[in-house]
Amino acid sequence: MSGGSSKTALALALQLSNELLVVAEAGDVGAVADLDAERRRLLDSLRPVYGHMDPSERLVLQRISELNDRALGLLEHRRRRTERLMDTAAAGRRAVVAYSATRLQR
Questions:
Q1: C-alpha pair distances (Å), 67 with each of 5, 77, 78, 80
Q2: Which of 24, 47, 52, 53 has its CB 3.0 to 4.6 Å from that of 74, i.e. a possible disulfide?
Q3: So where are the chain's domains?
Q4: Per residue in 44-101, pLDDT tens?
Q5: Over the stretch 36-45, which tens digit does the pLDDT of each residue have?
Q6: 21-32 pLDDT, tens digit each
């Protein structure tokens, strides 16, 4: 991959990372997976030139990594929130079952 095409691929990967963060904030896990796969293909295509990148290209890779960390954090937070909601719903169902057996007999 030439220097110009690697810069183009990095710029596109950075753009995809920004889009990925936006859809992660919206909670669209399917879109996150699609964007991540596309970005992964781009970054894998850059593998042969990783050792020959200039400092500006390395900064772009660092920014991509930071955006990825933020997106993962958002998705992890969303997963934990969903788990708490499911736990609360399960506790409510257990309470309904427990209290339904103690109804007043008329």
A1: 22, 15, 17, 20
A2: 24
A3: 3-78
A4: 998 888 788 889 999 999 999 999 999 999 999 998 998 998 989 888 888 888 888 7
A5: 999 999 999 9
A6: 999 999 899 999
Closest to 31 in 3D by CA, of 63, 84, 75, 65: 75
**Calpha distance 10→28 (Å, rounded):** 24
Of 12, 10, 36, 14, the residue nearest 23 (C-alpha):
36
Q: What is the per-residue burial (b if ≥16 Cβ within 10 Å, else e) of 67-76?
A: bbeebeebee
What angle in degrees, to the nearest 10, is found between the helix axes of 29-45 and 3-26?
A: 170
